[in-house]
Design brief:
By secondary structure, this protein is mostly helical. The chain has four helices and no strands. The two termini are about 25 Å apart.
């Protein structure tokens, strides 16, 4: 989803690009960017060491994250996972709203 969104945004902006590396592994993509082979779309909250946000590129919009399951509260791991997502990935504004 993120690669498609990034490529479409670059094309709409008339910016030339070439896909030089593809991986199903987030760590693989991050390693390629850390090595200087390419730019990548990664969340601001989890940028690996050595990577920084590149300004001046077209905006990609926002993405939603959903957690499904355990409405009955039978799995003791579900609530800590949701809390982690709210506190660590979404920022303090969403964690406070929970």
């Amino acid at each position: 989803m993120f690669r498609d969104r990034a490529l479409a945004a670059l094309a709409r902006a008339g910016l030339a690009f070439e896909v030089v590396y593809v991986s199903a592994s987030l760590l693989g993509v991050a390693a390629a960017a850390q090595a200087g082979f390419a730019l990548s779309v990664l969340g601001r909250s989890g940028l690996p060491p050595g990577l920084v946000e590149v300004h001046g590129l077209p905006a990609l919009g926002t993405a939603e994250m959903c957690v499904f399951g355990d409405a009955a509260g039978q799995n003791p791991l579900a609530e800590p996972l949701v809390r982690f997502i709210r506190e660590s990935l979404a920022g303090p504004e969403l964690a406070a709203a929970a």
